[in-house]
Amino acid sequence: MLTRNQRQEALCRAYMQAVAAKCGLGWSRADQDYGFYLCLHDIITVEQRRAESGHKLDIQAKSTTLAGTHGPFIRYDLEVKNYNDLQLVTKGTPRILVVLVLPSAEADWISQTEKELVLQHCAYWFSLKGREPTSNRRTVRLQIPRANMFSVEALRVIMDRIRRGEEL
Q: Which end of the chain is less packed: N or C, by CB atoms within 10 Å?
């Protein structure tokens, strides 16, 4: 059986893939783990066939039952090595953090009927591009706006901004 953390990771991957699928995006995972879990690919129609446009989004995915969800922010403690990966200013593929917040009781993570499969709570996205380096040694506390729900609409807006060459 997978560990609890592996089950959380699998649910996070399923959440992101479901949102990407609804947006009509392709996805891939890197063969080697260099800090980014999933890459989303913009798909366009070229001469009556589908092709990647070249616009991409790298995602560092996390899942937690411990994030504070009171008020307008999600409080999440990100490991310094992950923070450093996300705050680097690069000219390549944009990068975001996606944090899936799950209920503390594993029995509450998913419910299912013949009509629906429900994953409880939701994920939030956050861009750390251009943030100052940290002198912390273990973690950096992030305050992710609850308005940054990783939803179909939010992902469409993010991909539109990437296509236009705008910062996230």
A: N
